[in-house]
Amino acid sequence: MSTVIDSPTRESDPTKADSPKSPSLDQHPNHGDAKTGDVAIPQMETDATGMAKPDHGKPTAQERRRRDNLSLYALGWLGLAHIGCLFAPMTFTWAGLFTLIGLHWLTGSLGICLGYHRLLTHTGMKTHNWVRYLFGGIGSLAGEGSPLDWVADHRKHHAHSDQEGDPHSPHDGGWWSHVFWLAFHTHDGDRKDYLNHWVPDLMRDRGMRILDKMFLPMNLALGAGLFGIGYAFGGLSLATSLFIWGFCLRLVLVLHATWLVNSASHIWGYKNYETADDSRNNWIVAIFAYGEGWHNNHHAYPRMAKHGHKWWEFDMTWMMIVLLKKLGLVWDVVDYKNAAEKRARAAAQADKAA
Ligand SMILES: [Zn+2]
Ligand SMILES: [Zn+2]
């Protein structure tokens, strides 16, 4: 267990917001370097006087737990995927297992960790629009909801971590934070209003709105595609194996890996940084969730695309970001903790070049 506790230094970072209760710019999109203005800074919601509207984190977990607020869509989707897993033992094939492993990495690491989380939620790097849509599309295939809903819920989590309004805090129950929070709508009955508040950047983006509509069709097409390929190459038995292992079981394993970040990484593990929330670094979660288990590091420095901060905190998703950077597909990757560190690095690089 590490005993090194560091306090995140925020004083000089122009991207930090004042109030932890508001959708802080640190967690918010496209704020980039406010000094150079090279990326658009989303505006806080304002009232008639032009003052920023306070965000009270409504609805709270307690307010959401109503029968008429149940999300039957989510319950049906998640329930069917879990029921499908019951058929895994009798449909095993090696092809099914390798399909599961490949799609687990593709949708979990590239789709959710890199695409939905580090790129779309926290804008930890810049990239071409087509790359954003590609990763948004791959993320959709993880079956965790459209980019709009996922990013909105996660930004709200950062703005209210382990306080009232956090969509999935273990303070409301360990199982609630792991899965049951998904049974109820996270908005107040007006999804559009909720999305406009938390993801104004994605709502303005036509490509993201299309991905939102395509969530279910794309997932159904993947399931049908796996079944069809299996049928073409090995008849009904391979078809059911690819569908159950590559679709249902893979989906459920990726879901629980992501959910462990919300539950276990806010309960068990160590802290590198003193944060106001209960986030922890949990190495088991880091393995299953491709580096996302270094969650205390992430809460301390949300925009930093690199989640492993010590040499032994292996972060598989970060390896992929390094590769994408080498290929020129992403740039301006946030691998620094604050603006002062960024300036020091730039000065050191300039010295080297001179
Ligand atoms: Zn968290
Ligand atoms: Zn995050």
Automatic annotation (TrEMBL):
Subcellular location: Membrane
GO MF annotations, alphabetized: oxidoreductase activity, acting on paired donors, with oxidation of a pair of donors resulting in the reduction of molecular oxygen to two molecules of water
Biased composition (Basic and acidic residues): 8-19
A Pfam family per the record: FA_desaturase
Region (Disordered): 1-40
Keyword Transmembrane helix in annotation: yes
Family: Belongs to the fatty acid desaturase type 2 family.
Protein name: Fatty acid desaturase
Phylogenetic lineage: Bacteria, Pseudomonadati, Planctomycetota, Planctomycetia, Planctomycetales
